[in-house]
Amino acid sequence: MYDPQLNIKLRHQLMSEISGYINHKKMTQSQAAEYFGITQPRISNLVKLKVELFTIDMLVNLLEKIGYRIGLDISQPSEML
Questions:
Q1: Considering the domain boundaries, does residue 74 fall inside one?
Q2: Residue 35 carries which DSSP code?
């Protein structure tokens, strides 16, 4: 079944993980920006979960930078089996 919100849900989950890491490490937005190599306004948008401003690619790269291992689980529809 097609879920038009799937991409948004995935980005939201990835952003929440990054934001949680920033909070856990008690980083300021400026410190996080320097650490991740992006601007402070981008960090601000990230922690505000402005999903529409980020790609899955960028978020995966940021998560890899903090040591996350990213996996993907794809299931074939039952009618194709």
A1: no
A2: H
Question: Does residue 76 fall inside a structural domain?
Answer: no
The closest alpha carbon to 43, from 12, 18, 74, belongs to 18
What token pair was written down for 32? 């996080």
Q: Residue 77 domain-assigned? A: no
At residue 75, φ and ψ (nearest 5 deg) are -115, 135
Residue 22: inside a domain, yes or no?
yes
Q: What are phi and psi of 76, to 5 degrees?
A: -80, 135
DSSP character for 26? T
Read off the pLDDT of each residue in 31-43 and give the average, rounded to a whole number: 98
Q: What is the pLDDT of residues 42-54, one digit of tens each?
A: 999 999 999 999 9
This prediction's pTM: 0.87
pLDDT of residue 1: 66
Structure tokens at 57: 């690619």
